[in-house]
Specification:
Layout: E1 2-3, E2 10-11, E3 25-27, E4 30-32, E5 38-40, H1 41-50, H2 55-63, H3 70-74, H4 81-90, H5 93-131, H6 133-157, H7 160-168, H8 171-179, H9 185-193
Antiparallel strand pairs: 1-2, 3-4, 4-5
C-alpha cells in the first residue's frame, strides 16, 4: 500500500511511475507531476502554492546535490494541460466580468493615487515653507561646508603627510570622519521633506 508523502494517507496509485507526457496527469483524487511523482491532488496543490517544485524531488535534490540538474527535474511548469485549463477558465463569462471589474477598480485607484500624491506634495510644500525647512537645511549645508574647509586648512597646516592624505581621500570619507554618517544628508532631507 503506497501513501502520499505530504499527508501520509493511502494513495491509490504508485508513488513513482515515469511520466512520458511532460504534463501533469490528474487521475481521480491523485496527480502525477512531470517528474513522475504522485500525490493527492489537494496536497500537491497546497505544496505548489509555496514553491513550484516537486516536494520529493526537492528533498532528494537537497540530499544528493552532486552537480546533477536536479533543480529543473522537479520544477513544475505552467504549460501543457494546466495552461490549457487556465486559459479556458480565464475565458469564462464570470471570470471575464471579474477581470473587467478589477481593471476598472484599479484604474479608479490609480487616478485617486495621482490626485492624492499631488495634494500631499502641495501640503508638504506649504508645510516646508511654514516651518522654514528649506532655509534650515541650507544653513546646515553652509555650516557643513564651512567646518570642512576649516578642518582641511588646519589639517594641511599640520604637515605634508596629512595634506597628502587629504588630497587622496574622497570627500565623503573626510566628512564621515569629521561629521559622522552625514554623507547623504541633503538626499535624506530631500527624501523626508518632499
Amino acid at each position: 500500500m503506497e501513501e502520499c508523502i505530504l499527508c501520509y494517507d493511502y494513495l491509490c496509485v504508485p508513488v513513482f511511475r515515469e511520466n512520458t507526457t511532460n504534463d501533469i496527469i490528474v487521475d481521480g483524487n491523485s496527480s502525477r507531476l512531470q517528474c513522475g511523482h504522485a500525490y493527492h491532488t489537494t496536497c500537491v496543490l497546497k505544496s505548489l502554492l509555496h514553491r513550484s517544485v516537486c516536494p520529493l524531488c526537492n528533498v532528494i535534490g537537497q540530499m544528493n546535490d552532486g552537480g546533477h540538474d536536479w533543480w529543473n527535474n522537479g520544477r513544475i511548469e505552467m504549460e501543457g494541460r494546466c495552461m490549457k485549463i487556465m486559459e479556458k477558465v480565464k475565458k469564462d463569462k464570470e471570470v471575464r466580468e471579474g477581470l473587467r471589474h478589477y481593471k476598472a477598480a484599479s484604474k479608479d485607484v490609480m487616478s485617486l493615487k495621482k490626485e492624492f500624491m499631488k495634494r500631499v506634495k502641495e501640503f508638504k510644500t506649504g508645510l516646508r515653507a511654514e516651518m522654514g525647512v528649506d532655509e534650515k537645511v541650507k544653513a546646515v549645508m553652509r555650516a557643513k561646508s564651512s567646518v570642512l574647509r576649516l578642518f582641511t586648512r588646519k589639517a594641511k597646516n599640520e604637515g605634508s603627510l596629512t595634506a597628502g592624505a587629504l588630497t587622496i581621500l574622497p570627500d565623503h570619507k573626510v566628512e564621515r570622519f569629521l561629521l559622522g554618517a552625514t554623507r547623504f544628508f541633503r538626499w535624506r532631507m530631500h527624501h523626508v521633506f518632499n
